[in-house]
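Dear support,

I submitted the protein below through the web form. The confirmation email said the job was done, but the results page showed an empty box. After a refresh the structure appeared. I'm attaching both so you can tell me whether what I see now is the final result or a partial one.
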Amino acid sequence: MALKTALQKKIMALALAGLASFSLTACGGAGSGNGTIIYANHQNGDAFTDSLQAAFKQQADSAGWQVEYLDGKGDGNLQIDQIAEVIEKKPSAIVLIPVDGVSIVPTVKQANEAGIPIISVNRYAEGGESFKAYSDDLEAGRLQAEFMVKNLPQNAKVVYLKGTSGQKSADQRWESFQKNCLDTRKDIELLAMADAQWSTAEAMKDMSLWLEMFPKIDGVICGNDSMALGAIAALRSAGRLQGVFISAVDATEPGLKAVAAGDLSQTVKQDAEGQAKATFELVKASLQGGTPADIEVPYTSITRENVAQYLK
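What the results page shows now:
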């Protein structure tokens, strides 16, 4: 038994050493492509996807991969042009966070036809073939709903700050919150909802307007931390922050600090490091010629009770 355990440990050590030395030149399936990986971000400056990209870059650098990073600047047409251009150079793989999951489909199919693996992370195209590293946005909305159902007073009045309608992440978080909170507790009244474009500034503008319109707001549900921070700023400016339950998604560092300070009631952790690791594994497998299964990274609800373990 001891011999078997020692052998297992030796095999594990060799496997880990092999992973540590893995590089593009060692990939069994990397014979196709020019040896470069393209990482096409939807927009630099987004708190969550910036963290995701940084975590992926750390792993890619450690593996010795040659990666070119693209910024779609939130412009679907620009991203389509960027990827169409790199397809002609035949990269070994493309990591994609699409600006628009619908308009990017013909470009994804173009990459498929060229034999270039597409690894979608966080968001994904609504057609074509890709390997996916993702978190289930329905789960995020459900966790927000459960928190509000548990904590909101009877006959509470709430507002909802959505990301961008038409984006699956924004739509599914809202639909799941509606199903699991508003449809469950009929006493809770939704006063208003707005597309705040994932933006702190837009959310602050919408929240400021609602504070003028509604004398009572008990809860604010936000599709991400950035919008929650805008809502918090507006509430604080109006002297109405205290006693309002505010929920968000992403568990960015500013969001976690707001939870610790008692300003943000809940943030649902979308695991950037977990998604980056899953993306790394999918890229590696695709370069080796494999057809890996999609990887789902779970969400976690964070409140003042457990925020300390997530703060760096």
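Response: this is the final, complete result; the empty box was a page-load delay. The two ends are 41 Å apart (CA to CA).
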